[in-house]
């Protein structure tokens, strides 16, 4: 199904690549939604998020954790960004035919 005509002159390799990317991003969105539901219900990881003694529960939910008054410090946001980038580039590869 291609209502915008993005694949009118595409080969099978490009089609397969776009399908793979769509599935991967859909799975990431599902995990993000599940994370929102879990944390909004008050379920947080036990323990401290850093060596200063801040617990996971001490940070707010949703966008307030990034942009609010009690937001995660900038160094923590950079670490999250780099971790997700590392997963995107190396960890989340589609390996077919291997068990």
What would you say this structure looks like, in words?
The structure is a single chain. This protein is an all-alpha fold. 52% of the residues lie in helices and 0% in strands. The protein is built from 3 helices and no strands. The model has no long low-confidence stretch (mean pLDDT 82).
Give keywords.
mainly alpha, 99 residues, elongated
Structure at a glance:
The chain has 99 residues and is an all-alpha fold. It is built from three helices and no strands.
What is the tally of helical segments? 3
Helical residue percent?
A: 40-55%
Strand content: under 5%
Distance between the termini: 31 Å
The arrangement of helices and strands along the chain is: HHH
Report the C-alpha radius of gyration, rounded.
Answer: 19 Å
Helix-strand layout with pairing:
Elements: H1 12-40, H2 64-67, H3 74-91
């Amino acid at each position: 199904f291609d209502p915008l005509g993005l694949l009118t002159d595409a080969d099978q390799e490009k089609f397969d690549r776009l399908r793979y990317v769509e599935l991967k991003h859909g799975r990431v969105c599902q995990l993000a939604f599940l994370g929102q539901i879990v944390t909004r219900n008050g379920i947080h990881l036990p323990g401290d998020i850093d060596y200063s003694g801040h617990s996971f529960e001490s940070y707010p939910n949703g966008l307030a954790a990034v942009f609010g008054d009690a937001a995660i410090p900038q160094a923590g946001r950079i670490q999250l960004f780099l971790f997700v980038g590392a997963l995107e580039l190396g960890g989340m590869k589609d390996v077919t035919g291997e068990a």
